[in-house]
Specification:
By secondary structure, this protein is of the alpha/beta class. It folds into two domains: 3-94 and 185-269, Rossmann fold (3-Layer(aba) Sandwich), CATH 3.40.50; 102-164, no CATH class. Helices cover 40% and strands 21% of the residues. The protein has helices at residues 3-11, 57-64, 87-93, 110-116, 126-131, 134-153, 169-182, 199-216, 227-233, 251-255, 258-265; strands spanning 19-28, 31-41, 46-50, 72-77, 80-81, 95-97, 187-191, 220-223, 236-241, 244-249. It has a six-stranded mixed beta sheet, sandwiched between helices. A hairpin with a 2-residue loop joins strand 4 and strand 5. The longest helix has 20 residues, at 134-153. It is globular. The relative contact order is 0.17.
């Protein structure tokens, strides 16, 4: 069964969501960032969150990755409760995240940055790493093989040994995506994956995101301001404003909702899915 077949099968059966984000309330010094936000993400689904700046999109990601702890609500990844867990513990459960602003080591090569994404798969200490014998050697070689597969998947071979700081912006964004994939996540959080990209780079990133969903079967939550991209890629979309959800549905349902059109798109910028 292909990943696409699995997604279609999952949509026709009663199944436990991969992610449950239920009635979450998050506030800071009297300012409510999230106010009763609820959504689920199913197996193999690309779920998008849209809204204006300050709507609470990044706050959702920070709750999911353990940076913020909400005052109310439930956040479950499969059977695991995420609230109260530290970011590294959530990463070990299989939640990986990219960032709106590139967070790479510019002086390291593409391969080195991707290898950093394998840190969860290093079951040995510093001394064993220095000795590079036995288990450490075998594990290091296995990790390098996994990284080379990501290089091929994201078509990074021409730049694999170049320092990231010398690469075009769009390639750096692709490397950051690769680093997240290197951890072998079970859920991928994409924070504005095409922010700052030109049209050609955006189209390339969209293709890789679709490949991740369709070939790897990896569920994703995506925050993005590019409405055309969201409407083309997302299976479902949640629209939020001032920390409160306005509408959750398919791209067509969201794009034709009068409240969404009026509040975010404007009649003259209406997007036809």
């Amino acid at each position: 069964m292909t990943a696409t077949d699995a997604r279609q099968s999952a949509s026709t059966e009663e199944a436990t969501p991969v992610l449950t984000f239920e009635d979450v309330v998050l506030g800071f010094d009297g300012v409510t960032a999230l106010n009763g936000v609820s959504f689920t993400v199913n197996a193999g689904e690309l779920f998008a969150v849209i809204g204006p700046n300050g709507a609470g999109k990044t706050s959702i990601f920070n709750v999911l990755s353990g940076v913020y702890r909400p005052q109310q609500g439930t956040v479950r990844f499969g059977a695991e409760d995420l609230i109260g867990r530290r970011p590294h513990a959530i990463a070990r459960l299989g939640v990986a995240r990219t960032f709106q602003n590139i967070e790479l080591f510019s002086n390291l090569t593409v391969l080195d940055n991707l290898m950093l994404g394998r840190h969860l798969h290093h079951p040995y200490g510093v001394l064993a790493a220095f000795a590079w014998l036995g288990k450490a050697r075998r594990n290091e070689l296995a990790n390098r093989l996994a990284v080379e597969e990501i290089v091929d998947f994201l078509e990074l071979a021409p730049w694999r040994r170049l320092p990231v700081g010398l690469l075009p912006y769009g390639i750096q964004k692709r490397v950051e995506l690769g680093r997240a994939l290197a951890s072998e996540p079970k859920l991928l959080l994409l924070d504005e994956p095409v922010a700052g990209m030109n049209l050609e780079e955006t189209e390339g990133m969209a293709r890789f995101i679709l490949d991740i969903r369709d070939e790897l079967g990896l569920p994703m939550v995506m925050v993005e301001h590019d409405m055309g991209l969201v409407m083309d890629l997302a299976d479902r979309i949640m629209v939020i404003d001032f920390g409160k959800p306005i509408r959750t549905g398919t791209p067509r349902e969201v794009a034709t909702d009068p409240d969404v059109v009026r509040a975010y798109l404007g009649e003259e910028h209406r997007v036809t899915p």
